């Protein structure tokens, strides 16, 4: 019966299963390197066993889980290779994307990005009791929006999908380092404003240099070097 339901619902059920899995993964309900069973994933997502069975090949192909003989399925394990690969992927993708974005982005888009960042900086500067958790959440959304806006501007579904998968892996990597905290809000916003300033010159070379510096800084944080 589960197989019939899964077949009838088709892509919608598969997407729901994928979304629920990644939500729990990023919420740390499932830990990097953890072994999980199909039944555990059924309980976690609230979806059918058939939906989970259809989900697994996609997760394996994206490197979010792997099957270990005689042990079962293992969630992506965070190690130095994953850090190196994930951030190298970002550099390759975002260098080219920001070069094109610098030439083609509308003035209105750049104004919006600058205003979003300056608003966070302004609010952080006037808070006497320290940066609030709500502002950290807002700053994180502004952070992700800049990078996604640059990638999405290419209008390339293959690149966007690959970048999305890599973003999940980046967010798994020592989340306490790669996600914003109250101490990182201002430094990251300043790095982003430097990127925006470089883009505003309409000089791709300056924009690429700025995004290089930012991604390398994020990689250093992931490695515990900052």
UniProtKB/TrEMBL annotation:
It comes from the Bacteria. It comes from Microvirga arabica. Keywords: DNA-binding, Transcription, Transcription regulation. InterPro entries: GntR_C, TF_FadR/GntR_C, Tscrpt_reg_HTH_GntR, WH-like_DNA-bd_sf, WH_DNA-bd_sf. Residues 11-78 form the HTH gntR-type domain. This is GntR family transcriptional regulator. Pfam families: FCD, GntR. The keyword Cell division does not apply.
